[in-house]
Amino acid sequence: MKPMPRFPTAVCVALVLASLSVANAQTAAPPSQPSASPSTQPPPTAPATEPPATQPTLGDDKEAIEAAKKWLDLLDADKAGVAWDSASKELQNVVKRDQFIAEMRNVRKEMGKLDSRTAVKFARAHELPGGSPGDYALIEFDSKYKNGKHLSEQLIWSIEQGDTWRVVGYFYR
Is 169 left (phi over 0), alpha (psi -120 to 50) or beta? Predict the structure, then answer.
């Protein structure tokens, strides 16, 4: 099986760092436990079933998730140029239009026809590594294709001038 094409390494590294930072911001660190020997420490508690009240959930941002799906639908419909045109200036400065279109065509051709796309993670942040302070939203999708292949797709949104949300990063694996 031939390897899936990727964005240039610098773009991938920046987007991975950004997505990890945002994903880590989604969950608060557990309170520190007093030092004790392993035999006297209480067993770890089960993870909470509810996210912390201060963090957004998928239900909080249905519009952002729907907009992200529509942006990804452009890629699925071989309209990567339109997707690039609507992306942020920051993304456009990092990945040139022709390069983006060629990359998305290659990926979508290999993946085939989309079967389903489900939002699986959502997080917000005010800062990302290498980015300027602002408002960011990260949405991760599990995308399944009719040929049995899967993609994990992450979109990073940011507010640009004029209070318009735009895609500032796209990463897939």
Answer: beta
**Domain contains 95:** yes
Going across the sheet that includes 114-125, the strands are 114-125, 136-145, 150-160, 164-172
Torsion angles phi and psi, residue 89, rounded to 5: -60, -35
Classify residue 46: in a domain, yes or no.
no
The CATH number for 128's domain is 3.10.450.590
* pTM over the 0.70 mark: no
Query: Distances in Å between the alpha carbon of 170 and those of 42, 50, 122, 149, 156?
Result: 42, 28, 14, 19, 6
Confidence of residue 60 (pLDDT cuts 50, 70, 90): low
Q: Could you give the number of structural domains in the chain? A: 1
Q: pLDDT digits over 20-46, tens only?
A: 333 333 333 333 333 333 333 333 333
